[in-house]
Amino acid sequence: MSKVPMTRIGHQRLKEELDQLRKFERPKVVKEIEEARAHGDLSENAEYDAAKDRQGFVEGRIREIQGKLGQAEIIDPKELSGDRVLFGATVTIYDFEADEEFTYQIVGDDESDIKDKKISFSSPIARALIAKSVGDETVIKAPKGNRTVEIMDVVFK
Fold first, then answer.
1. Over the chain, what is the mean pLDDT?
2. What domains are defined for the chain?
């Protein structure tokens, strides 16, 4: 069984989502199904079909989160150090083509949010950066073409 890396914050957010789904969403969907059944003929009942679809989504998401939490390898970036890019690192890179610096934190798949400058460890950017050190140049293979970047800083916070 392979481990799913995530930060402590990402792990906590998944636990909170699971709690929300179990305590509020699941009972809400059950109630919607009961109300839709009370309307009669289920074969032509769009409300019933929608509620059953929602139930399937909620139950699927619960199973997915339980699986990820069961396989979680919690990594606390505060406990790491050095100038090598690892999971959890906040990395500043210089993009030669754009003549601009960008800063990203490398996090788990469920934690990634480009608006918050958090990228998944499995993304093309993170894959190009992991195991490199400050001062190294690397090529990021992106859909719009390859980008050469230099690693300017690595921080664990």
1. 92
2. 4-75 (1.10.287.180), 77-155 (3.10.50.30)
